[in-house]
Amino acid sequence: MQEQHELYENARKRTKQKKRLYLHFVIFVVGSLFLFVLDRVFAIGEDYLKDWFIWAILLWSFFWILHFINVFITKRFMGKDWERKQTEKLVAKQEKRIKKIKIKLEREAQHKAESQFYNEQEKKQSKPKQIITLIAAIANNNALGKDNDLIWHLPSDLKRFKNTTTGHHIIMGRNTYESIGKPLPNRTSVIITRNQEYKAEGCIVVNSLEEAIAVAKNDASPFIIGGAQIYEQAIELADKLDITEVHHSFDADVFFPEINIGKWKETRREKFSADEKNKYDYSFVTYEKK
Ligand SMILES: NC(=O)c1ccc[n+]([C@@H]2O[C@H](COP(=O)([O-])OP(=O)(O)OC[C@H]3O[C@@H](n4cnc5c(N)ncnc54)[C@H](OP(=O)(O)O)[C@@H]3O)[C@@H](O)[C@H]2O)c1
């Protein structure tokens, strides 16, 4: 009830002031006309100042404009109490808006934190990227083998091969498989051949390199173990090369493809000298795709 009464009183005050302003305007217009007549028709005051009525009208206009600003813009006639209440209302409105913005920002931050959490969980749950490695022993002249057999005997290299590949898929061409002659223990042997009828006990036989990779899809680290034809095709899709460099040149009929140093970065190198078991100097070298 009190608020309604206040609203009514304020509206009444405003209407009263607007009426006064209107009356002021009418008096101003009539007064200006009167001053004009005094000056022009009766020539009153002409001895002191020429066209004095213009200055008088301008001065009056100034006061009328002040009156106008008071009624329509500053509304000072409404009193200090009204101004204070208006300010309070404005502050309350702003506080409400700030509160809303704060709630919105808090919600957004919460959503962001939640989605970050879920993304991290997803990342943790998703499998690590599969690393496909080509493993080979290569001579100075890139020689790999001759007459479908290895040319040298390096027990250190065979040991490294066994330690690295145990527990993983080893993917090979049909010639390499036949050169080895049996599936290697503790590894899954995958043989690539175009022959649809090919059978090899204890091995998985596939008809393309892509099929071999698909067979090993659950292995985080499958190895491609040769021979020359398969290395040639697989080097493009491999992520890593585990190379044993045999520091000697041999007469051979199959060769490893050139390692393009623009595409591959050497990340490890260990050199060993020949001994009574290993006839040639050799190095274990790792390359990673750039
Ligand atoms: N130094 C080393 O580290 C190392 C490692 C491995 C092997 N080697 C040597 O390398 C030699 C063997 O290599 P290689 O090049 O003669 O033979 P390979 O690469 O072992 O096998 C070639 C055979 O794989 C099959 N093949 C190739 N590409 C195919 C494709 N895209 N789709 C389906 N089948 C495909 C074909 O089998 P089909 O003819 O049955 O269709 C082809 O004849 C041997 O001397 C071996 O000792 C050396």
Q: What is the fourth-level CATH superfamily of the largest domain?
A: Dihydrofolate Reductase, subunit A
Q: Calculate Rg over CA atoms.
A: 49 Å
Low-pLDDT runs of 5+ residues are none
The assigned structural class equals: alpha/beta
Bound molecules: NADP nicotinamide-adenine-dinucleotide phosphate
CATH class of the largest domain: Alpha Beta
The major beta sheet can be summarized as: 8 strands, mixed
Strand order of the largest sheet: 5-4-3-6-1-7-10-9
Helix content: 40-55%
The number of helices is: 7
Give a quick precis of the structure:
With 290 residues, the chain is of the alpha/beta class. The chain has helices at residues 2-40, 52-74, 80-125, 155-165, 174-180, 209-215, 228-234; strands at residues 133-139, 143-145, 169-173, 188-192, 203-206, 223-224, 240-246, 254-255, 264-272, 282-289. An eight-stranded mixed beta sheet has the order 5-4-3-6-1-7-10-9. It has a two-stranded antiparallel sheet with strand order 2-8.
Protein model, in words:
The chain is an alpha/beta fold and 290 residues long. The chain folds into two domains: 2-78; 133-289, Dihydrofolate Reductase, subunit A. The chain contains seven helices and ten strands. The strands form two sheets. An eight-stranded mixed β-sheet has the order 5-4-3-6-1-7-10-9. The longest helix has 46 residues, at 80-125. It is rod-shaped, with a radius of gyration of 49 Å. 17% of the residues are buried. It binds NADP nicotinamide-adenine-dinucleotide phosphate.
